[in-house]
Amino acid sequence: MSAPGIAVTTRNAITTSHRTLLLNHHKYFPPNNMANEYPREDALKMCYRRLIRLKPLISQRDMVRMTYVQYLRYKFITEDYSKKVSTSSISLSGLETDVVRQVENSLYFCLKAVSEVKKRVLGEEAVSQESRIARNILKNILTIEFEKATLIAKDPQQNFPILRKSFNYLSPSASKSPALLRFNSLREFDRCLIGLNETLGTRL
Predict the structure, then answer these.
(1) Contact in structure between 21 and 13 (CB atoms under 8 Å)
(2) Number of domains in the chain
(3) Disulfide-capable partner of 92 in 42, 104, 145, 198 (CB 3.0 to 4.6 Å)?
């Protein structure tokens, strides 16, 4: 960590012990009209790369950064999100059903979570509040993901299929199953997160 009062400047950012000011924003934002102008796989790869680039801004703690990267890899490579939503039986007629747009919206959400608003600008209070909310949501997601990873590491044969494959802990009837009671806190969080995704058009 940098000493107080010392700033490290590169062509991409100015970094102090508390903040990072990005200088090349284009590396983090998706191209205009990406969903319509790029093939699906190319667009998803662009979003993935940009999300990975946010890693230094997510936290100063290596463990949190590692959890963030592992979560991205899971979301992009392994997760069957449609099955996850279907198992939860949550259907809010989401605003956005296109995968690329959902992932693009998720990128914008994460950008908002790592952003700080310049003081004394028009709309500062409202935008700052949005950033704080996004930051807290992302922090909670990573906390839950770390908890899942810990459970899987303790008993991969039992917990990996439940948390990553079948998603039966999300079922409305899971709270009545003795075998799944221990996942109740994860179930409630993930069901809320699915509802949030449906509302925001994201895929967090």
Answers:
(1) yes
(2) 2
(3) 198
Task: Give 103's contacts (C-beta < 8 A, 6+ positions apart).
Answer: 43, 44, 47, 203
Q: State the Cα–Cα distance between residues 147 and 150, nearest whole angstrom.
A: 5
Residues 120 and 90 in one domain: yes
Q: What is the pLDDT of residue 129?
A: 86
Instruction: Identify the domain containing residue 134 by its residue range.
Output: 31-200
Whether residue 157 is found in the same domain as residue 92:
yes
Instruction: Report whether 199 contacts 95 (CB < 8 A).
Output: yes
Q: Which residues of the chain have pLDDT under 50?
A: 1-2, 8-10, 14
Predicted structure pTM score: 0.85
**CA distance linking residue 105 with residue 97, whole number of Å:** 11
Residue with tokens 């449906």: 198
* CA 103 – CA 109 distance, rounded (Å): 10
Question: Does residue 42 share a domain with residue 75?
Answer: yes
